[in-house]
Amino acid sequence: MDKSKQTSHTFMPWAYDTRVIQRNINEGVLTQADVKNMIEKLPDVAEKAESVHTTLGGNDMDDDLEEQD
Questions:
Q1: 6 vs 46: CA distance, rounded Å
Q2: What's the pTM value of the predicted model, to 2 decimals?
Q3: Rounded to the nearest 10 degrees, how much is the dihedral formed by the CA atoms of 18, 14, 9, 34?
Q4: Contact present, 24 and 30 (Cβ < 8 Å)
């Protein structure tokens, strides 16, 4: 079976995994057009985003323990 024909009729979410998308394009599982169409269909959820604050190094619990000593 021709894999490129299969993609136009069957949605395969695993094929769009960013870790394997280039391999799937190279093997003919997806086309660049398939990827472009999928990206265009994604909803804009920017208003649902939350800020995340992180620090490098230890964690806050380590700092609290040192202050108690």
A1: 32
A2: 0.53
A3: 0
A4: yes
Spatial distance between the Cα atoms of 21 and 32, rounded to a whole number of angstroms: 10
Q: How far is CA 40 from the centre of its chain?
A: 15
For residue 15, the tally of other CB atoms under 10 A from its CB is 21
Tokens of 2: 């021709």
Check residue 64 and report its DSSP letter. Answer: H
Q: For position 1, what pLDDT does the model report? A: 42
Q: Helix (H, G, I), strand (E, B), or coil: what is residue 48?
A: helix
pLDDT for 68 equals 62
Span 25-57, pLDDT tens digits: 999 989 999 999 989 999 999 999 999 999 888
Q: Which residue is listed with tokens 């323990």?
A: 65
Q: Do the Cβ atoms of 35 and 23 come closer than 8 Å? A: no
